[in-house]
Amino acid sequence: MVDRGASALSLPDDWPAHPDPILALNRMGSFDWDLDTGLFHMDVQAHEVFDLRPDEYDGHPETLAIRVPAPEGYRLDTLVSQAMKDGSENYGTYFRIRCRNGSLRWTHTQGYIRRDETGRPRRIVGIVRDATQELDDLAARREQASLDAARQEQTNVVQLTTAALAYARSVDDVIDVLKDTHGLTHLGATSLVMGLVEAGRIRLIAEGPVGSFVPGTDVTGIDEQYPMSEVVRTLTPRFIESPEEFAERYPLLWPHITGLNITAAAYLPLIAQARPIGAMGLLYSDRDGFSPEDRNVLVALGSSIAQSLQRAMFYEQEKDLASGLQQAMLPRTIPSVRGADVAVRYRAGSAAGSLGRDIGGDWYDLIPLPGGRVGAVIGDVQGHDTHAAAVMGQLRIVLRAYAAEGHTPATVMARASVFLHELDTDRFATCLYAEADLATGVVQVVRAGHIDPLVRQADGSCRRVPVEGGLPLGLSAEFGSLEYPVATLELDPGNTLLLCTDGLVEQPGADLDDGMQTLTALIGSGPADVRDLADKLIDVAEERGGDDDVALLLLRRRGLDAPQSGGRLQQHVAPGDPEALAEARHMIRAAVRAWGSGERADEIELVADEMITNALMHTEGSAIVTLRVLAGPERRLRVEVEDSSSALPRRREAGESGVSGRGLLLVDLLTDVWGVEARGGGKCVWCEFVVPGRT
Q1: Who's near 169: CB < 8 A, 6+ residues apart?
Q2: Using CA atoms, how far apart are residues 670 and 611, in angstroms rounded to an integer?
Q3: Closest by alpha carbon to 270, among 229, 245, 230, 303?
Q4: Which SS3 state, helix, strand or coil, does residue 495 take?
Q5: How far apart are CA 243 and CA 640, in angstroms?
Q6: 561 in helix, strand or coil?
Q7: What whole-number distance in Å separates Cα of residue 214 and Cα of residue 209?
Q8: Which span out of 144-158, 467-481, 496-510 was modeled with the highest average pLDDT?
Q9: What angle do CA 417, 418, 422 make, to 5 degrees?
Q10: β-strands 40-42, 90-98 pairing
């Protein structure tokens, strides 16, 4: 190596007559080479460096050949000649000498070239020293640096693997992380084997490369002569450092894996909460042992894997429990409904990294009701946990009970809200309840903080049906507002009513209206069959993913094959609510025509309107209007208006200019029969119309 950094002019002219004592103190020898005479003068310390006695050296460089091997001498001559030719002021290099005892040792020399005024080299002065310790120290440092780098690489693999394992939610996820090309293979392992402890045995869940499975080892006893059994039994890792050791320790296993060319193996117990949950084996084809650092790294890795496995096992158990609870809370079967095709679907959300959150409070229900009616429910309890599912189950039961008791949709919703408010919970729920008369197609809808329903027409077009709503269940009672407006819509044969929870609508970065438009377009382009359409919608939700659950109910009205009797509709009309009164009129008109009594529709609507108006004017509460068909020798349509007052209606003379007092007169004139019945703390005014049978 040529060094141009020092100047020969800095050396004294009479050197080495007075050598620097610092050289001797540093165990360096000096030399002075006269290039004109060829004499190579060395001091005593230089003789010691070359392991020469004074009588063994005659002052000529050639004499040093007894200590400098020929290849080293040739390299030195080439280096010095090149330095003199290219004008260098100095040179330096390491070379080996052969000591008196025949051993080789490293030496270092540094020479300074003195030139005359023409630039011709005339003299070289310099130093030689024993560099054995220096190079040994350098080699040791390099080896240590290499070991540190390897150890750091192993540590990085452990850290990266641990970080990846933090996202594992199942045992399969853990295995995938470990088998990934960025996982344990960076530790040099040829293959991985892993087993879990189950009922006193070890069940294999991962084995090495394809074709390496050992027959009979898928389930092994803890007391058997296998390495994983031993580490589980003793809770101590086993490091096997040679094929011979493997064959001696585990004669049952070794004959089956000789084809894998295994040279070493590490088997680690997987311990969590002071108990073994499994074992893991790493098999190597290019390793002949494990340093203490290697063992520490692998033990640390085993501990991290054990914790991840335990989390994954807990998660899978919690998920199974959640799934079972969810299925138990939802209806086991959906009843068949004459006159309708029904499809329901449920998709659990997936909240990553949290146990037991693959369950929520979304639910659906279909409730058969008297008179050919059916109640459809969709709802969502706040939260994603088992408590939300439990509240959902209770709400589903009470809604079904209130509907089956014959309450109006508004009453069903109000009572459900009171129930949830009085329940020992801080949860609220959104809900939509639709009561459909499949004979007439009249559907009464009540909404409690839930998203609107959608209707798909027989031609495939789809529209959102805006429904005025009340507060979510549990909040309406708290804030003293139990009013739930009832909306009425008509479902023609071939039309489909769709109810869903917001998990089907909401998308990241989009508002609810945009989500509803997207859903409307998706329904419009979907298949006509409700089951196929439900499958498509749930598939889209599955592809989109997300943390929220999805509940879905589709009800398609079919045309009835035969005349129906016994139809029944009910409507709640609140005082001071002209829209509710208009909806009641709309319901009556639609039902009368659908039931084949169109020729008396005006009379029936007029009488019903008069009875409702009287109830609202002369009582302080609301009115409940019920319309039903009575089958018998002659077909009759009955209208009932129920209120909370026990005062019986009186017939009054209106006078020539009076605008009131004609209500009961109209009822008496237009109906075939009418009357009043006591109903608890109130009364029911009723009337009947003889109507022709349907053809």
Answers
A1: 312, 315, 352, 353
A2: 12
A3: 303
A4: coil
A5: 94
A6: coil
A7: 11
A8: 496-510
A9: 120
A10: unpaired
pLDDT in tens, 152-188: 766 776 776 666 666 667 777 777 777 664 555 556 6
| Residue type at position 2 | V
The secondary structure of residue 470, as a DSSP letter, is B
**Which structure tokens are listed for 282?**
């790493």
The answer to whether residues 281 and 267 touch, using CB atoms and an 8 Å cutoff, is yes
Phi, psi at 103, each rounded to 5°: -80, 155
Residue 346 three-state SS: strand
Q: How far is CA 251 from the centre of its chain?
A: 44
Closest CA to 283 of 312, 256, 310, 311: 256
129 touches 111 (CB < 8 A) = no
Measure the CA–CA gap between 671 and 666, rounded to whole angstroms: 8
The three state secondary structure string of 249-271 is HCCCCHHHHHHHCCCEEEEEEEE
d(CA 603, CA 311): 71
Which helix (H) or strand (E) segment holds residue 125: the answer is strand 121-130
pLDDT at 574 over 90: no
Report d(CA 378, CA 433) in Å as an integer.
7
How far apart (Å, rounded) are the C-alpha atoms in residues 35 and 124?
A: 7
Is the backbone peptide bond immediately before 16 cis, with ω within 30 degrees of 0? yes
- How remote is the C-alpha of 84 from its chain's centroid? 73
Residues with Cβ within 8 Å of 276's Cβ and at least 6 positions away in sequence, in order, are 197, 232, 235, 269, 270
Q: Which pair of tokens denotes residue 658?
A: 């009076």
Q: What are the backbone angles phi and psi of residue 622, rounded to the nearest 5°? A: -95, 175
CB-count burial class (<10 Å; 0-12, 13-18, 19+) for 496: buried
Q: Which residues lie closer than 8 Å to 95 by C-beta, 6 or more apart?
A: 68, 72, 75, 76, 106, 107, 108, 109
Taking alpha carbons only, the member of 10, 26, 12 closest to residue 127 is 26
CA-closest candidate to residue 371, choices 565, 96, 611: 565
Length of the chain: 695
CA distances from 18 to 11, 15, 23, 122 (A): 11, 6, 11, 20
- Contact call for residues 359 and 384 (beta carbons, < 8 A): yes
Cα torsion angle, 280, 284, 288, 291, sign: negative
DSSP string, 175-237: HHHHHSTTTGGGGT-SEEEEEEEETTEEEEEE-SSTT-PPTT-SEEETTSSSHHHHHHHH---
**Rounded to two decimals, what is the model's pTM?**
0.52
| Per-residue confidence (pLDDT) for residue 122, from 0 to 100 | 92
Cα–Cα distance measured from residue 299 to residue 319, given in angstroms and rounded to the nearest whole number: 30
Could you report the per-residue pLDDT of 109-149, keeping only the tens digit for each? 999 999 999 889 999 999 999 988 888 888 888 878 877 77
